[in-house]
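Changelog excerpt

This revision adds worked examples to the README so contributors can see how folded entries look when concatenated. The first example is reproduced verbatim below.
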Amino acid sequence: MLARPPRREGHVSAFAFYTALFGLFATFATAICLIRSLRDEVEALANDRSCSGHAQSVSWRRGDILGSCVCRCRNRWSSKDCSVCPPGYDPAQDCVEPRCRTCTNVTDCSGRATTVNGDVCTGCRCTCRHRYTGPNCEECPKQFDSAQDCSACAPGVNGVYPDCDKSCTNAGNCSGHAKSVSGNGILGCQCVCDNAWTGGQCEHCPANVTQATCDRCIAGYDGYPQCQRVCTTVSDCANHADTVSGFDGSCVCRCRNHWSSKDCSVCPPGYDPAQDCVEPRCRTCTNVTDCSGRATTVTGDVCTGCICTCPKQFTGPACGTCATGYEDYPNCFKECTAVDNCNGHATKVTGNVHTSCQCTCAGHWSGETCDTCPD
């Protein structure tokens, strides 16, 4: 048996060597994993940012300055940033090419089709049975009976299936205001309106007629169904009539007392409207009331007429104006004249005795009153 060679100093054992070598390999493998992980994270970020999250892979293309990402879209996604899922593919299913199933009666035609064509990609075409309608045979029109699989006329509808016409009714088509109703939903309804109702569906009641029943005039109106306003003494005769007849615009007033005119609005002279135009007690005329307070004598009464004797400077029935030769009512001062105020020697005279006279002297006469003739 050979003896083991003696151990030399400075030599590393095989175990130690392999241990160190394994540690170095593990470190290198870890670095590779980190690099791959970082690469995956960068690629995932680029996919989200530049490829709408729909890329199978993302690569880098050098550009003018920074370059750009190149998206390799997965499934059927398209466009530069993988944002477009073309028709016929479902973006909710990550744009995987669908299996275009054949359309069926139960799934796509409400179970009411006699034939079904097409697929879910190109579109389903349902041939509806009986009178069902709609893209999916989902509707039974109201003139048909859905309880009988849309194969009979609905209750209350005239006709023989499939010619079902809805009958017109007073309540449904004439507002409940018709005396009679004829027609149907296809030909149209004809309403013969009751009372004063009007309109194609008897829906209107004229003004001035009771709106609830449309069968009589409202208060203050007469002549149904025209219902014109009835004349009244207050509205049409100034409240001065004993009686009134007729309708608005043609009222006939019978005036009381001494009121007159078409609408009894005039109380003639000599009668007092404040006393309802009753024949008055004929009071005696007075200077203050009837002669402007300027008469020298007053005779008569308000029925026969007042007679005022006016001073010379006043004139008129009630002494209400200046007489000729006087001016400035109610003072009525005497006007200046050539004879009275300019010694008969003036060609023109103005003013009155109150304001003073201005004489324009004739010839060589001079002086304030034209009383001086030079020698």
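The second example, added in the same revision:
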Amino acid sequence: MTEHKSQEIAELLAALSLAQGELNNVEKDSENPFFKSGYASLAACLNVVRPVLAKHGLSYQQTVSSGEAGQVCVTSVLGHKSGQWWASDLCLGINHNAQNAAQETGKVITYLRRYMLTAQLGIAQEDDDGNAGKLVSKTPVAHQTTLTEKEQGNIQELANVAGVDIQKICGRYDADDLSQIKGNQYRSIMNSLKKTIENEKGNDNG
């Protein structure tokens, strides 16, 4: 993820600090049909943040563009009424061999928008299993280190080659996105994806 910002952002950060004091973590309102795990949709995230941002003179915009090698890129801009701004760019590859390429592209765009929105504003998902007091940790502790950005990128690229929906992988580990999966699962995920690719090659050769 790359970031850009205006020369001065003091007023923006002050307003963001006030907004974060009022922002609640997002309740999970959607379900992964394959693994029966819940996650917060993009719409649910936007419904939580929009009124609070507006109250403090903040705005949030996201645009989509194409990157290198057919990647999909999303630029998220957090703006302040003073004219100050803070932007982030994030790109991911897509599986162009998917049966429905347009649908696959839409999934990647939605994933990027939701991931960047929650990351930039510092909000997480609230458990929907009755344990209302427990929240998804935003800061991993030492014995629960999560996947690094490089590892997330490696998994995303291999998943695209294997034709595996990234949400299926996340659902398997009860995670909303790759950033919430523990680092010790990296090798297992990569091996599983490699095995899927090998099996597909074997079927093609057969």
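Reviewer comment on example two: The radius of gyration is 18 Å. Residues 143 and 182 are 9 Å apart (CA to CA).
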